[in-house]
Amino acid sequence: MTTLAVVSAGLREPSSTRLLADRLADATARALGDAEIVHVPLRDHAHDLTNNLLTGFAAGDLRSAIERVERADALIAVTPVFNASYSGLFKTFFDVLEPGALEGRPVLIGATGGTARHSLALEFAVRPMFAYLRSVVAPTAVYAATADWGAAGEASGDLVERVERAGAELAGLVAGRAPVTAERADPFEDPIPFERLLAGG
Predict the structure, then answer these.
(1) Spatial contact of 17 and 153, defined as CB atoms under 8 Å apart
(2) CA distances from 24 to 165, 168, 169, 194 (A)
(3) Which residues of 155-173 are buried (b: 16+ CB within 10 A; e: fewer)?
(4) Domains in the chain, ordered, with CATH?
(5) Entry pTM
(6) Is 81:121 a contact under the CB 8 Å cutoff?
(7) Are 78 and 17 in contact (CB under 8 A)?
(8) For residues 10 and 132, what is the distance between their CA atoms, to the nearest angstrom?
(9) Tens of pLDDT along 77-91?
């Protein structure tokens, strides 16, 4: 079964960022026909992320969250927009992943903000970050402003259309890629003996 990791960086409960992430996950799962959805709300790991930056060690629940993301077949990543870019919490999570952890991974990006004028943050901040991580980013990025939501958290017709299109694109990327099954190789598991290194020099 395909596994979707859904990373959302909303700070409040409830959060429009989590709401958008849920909509994107549901749309992708429908397009795939069958998928396991694993939620990673970064709000729950804020303190451990700071400690990880200071110590270089991911403790407890954060370690488990990182492993769920690294083992997933695809990633949905949604951030609130602060000061015309992704949130610090969102960036910190991807800073602590191992190099190459998301290489070749299909990713769907989304963001939320107060007004539509912040929507370009997806294209000049979030998309380039995942390009640097060598992920495969779905063509459609979904931004949801406050005006895109109704009083009961219902999405507007235009937002629904964008969510469905983005979910179908991510499903298409997943379908064209081999599932993530094997553990990532540990470069220190089978080291070259020092004598052989010296002989080769």
Answers:
(1) no
(2) 10, 10, 11, 50
(3) beeebeebbbbbbbbbbeb
(4) 2-200 (3.40.50.360)
(5) 0.85
(6) yes
(7) yes
(8) 23
(9) 999 999 889 999 999
